[in-house]
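Supplementary Text 2. Reproducibility record for the structural model of the 344-residue chain.

All settings were left at their defaults, and a single model was retained for analysis rather than an ensemble. We include the record here because the model underlies the residue-level annotations in Supplementary Table 4.
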Amino acid sequence: MILPRFDVLVPNSVDEAFAMLSRYAEKGIRILAGGTDLLVDLRRPIIPAAIPSCEGCARHKSGSIRSTVDCGWWESDSSRESDRALLTKVQDSIHKYPEYIISLHKLKELRGIAVNEKVNLRVGAMTTITDIERSGIIREKWTALAEGADSLGSPLVRNRGTIGGNIANARPAADTFIPSVALGGVLDIHSEKGSRKVPVDSFASAPGETVMEKGEMITGIEYPAPPEFSGSAYYKLANRKALEICNVGVAVWIALEKPGGPVTDIRVALGAVGPTPILAESVKEVLVGKKPEDANIKKAAKAAREDATPIDDHRGSAWYRSMMVELVTDRMIRLAVERVGGKV
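Retained model, structure tokens:
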């Protein structure tokens, strides 16, 4: 793996990290939590995304040649440099790399899983996916989040990766992002200037883009206490069981008046079928106030399918993804209802 040059900063406190983010914001800075996504983002591609075309020069006399080096360099002093150095210059002109990386590995206060006096769950941003996967309280009360952790990457990735990093990357297929939307998670975002809370479902603005501003950092995620007779479920549909990005991810949280009674609230989050995770609001319109019976669940699953906006790519067609949204949503609603103690 070829990485660009950067300096690593290691803060000893959260306040020092905020100060570093503010001080170096204009020079380009990235946060290193687990590093499982960051190193992939930073690596230089062997072949640039855009290869320039030469219409004719001393090196390419015939012209109409696509070259990984800027032909003008061959006629200057840089012609004495190696091909690798020239290729690096082209790649750096295409990709904007940060000058500084802030490693948060010393900030233990950003780790941990706790339930507060309101019975809300708080997970520190630096909490590893493995810690979430192994948490008994999360698996019991916020089951969809534990199931998202189960399906993320591999044991090695889960041991290093963090929930804050997984959400901050704003990938529409992120395995803890999708359940966090369904569970009504709220992000704690801090900077030198202060703090604010942002609902997870409004955090991403585009693939890899978020509402975070320069100098800000996620410090934790809070999930509301699950009411009585509520349950959740998450399923990742992928081409293989490990180290794979999902084709479709569906997380469901549902609350019933009582086991077998009508639905009082439901949140269905869809992943990998839009530029950001989608909160399928149409499902709520179909199911709330009605019993989770077979016909109603089928209507709700179709409504989720209509809310999805999938595209064709190498992992599957838009048509296939659309059909799978309906199928998986149907199954996850039924599973969530069963976990509440209801029957379908």
